[in-house]
Amino acid sequence: MHDFILAFIPLFVAVDAVGSLPVLLGLIQNVDQQRRRRVVIQSMFTALSVAAIFVLAGRPLLRLLGVTASDFMIAGGTLLFVLSLNDLLAPGKARHKVDIDTLGAVPIGVPLITGPAVLTTCMLLVDQYGMAPTLLAAVVNVLLAGAIFLGATPIARLLGGPGTKVISKIANLLLAAIGVMLIRKGLLTVIQQFHG
Description:
By secondary structure, the chain is mostly helical. The chain is 84% helix and 0% strand.
């Protein structure tokens, strides 16, 4: 349970479902209520599938490429830091015209729910807390994101435009801090291995 909680928190920050609400609302503004539900279910299925592949096959892939856990920690931490910094400094995430039939899969499932930050975090958490807690944390976070997206309209109305932006900025700040922590841990591991 302790490992699950430790894996859940970074993934919750990386998914940033509440912060993604303005983007989601912009994408589904012309979609009827019944279709919205199908779009969200499709997005959850896609996000879960991609996250599960990275949790289950991430470590073998690293071994195949000859990349150590420390290498990936430093690279992943840098990526998380850059992504969060980009979101913190950017005026807003880009919106593109999309096909309604594939809207749930792309761009909502990937990369809105399971984007680069989530995939990097998943692979790093497997090494720190194990496959089962990470997979469970990923599943719970995707389901939670789906629940938030299903209630997107009332949640956005309750928080208001400024509220969702503030939550998004705080989530990105936490993600940047997690990125720095991963870089620090990776560098410490490399230094310990060098001296050992």
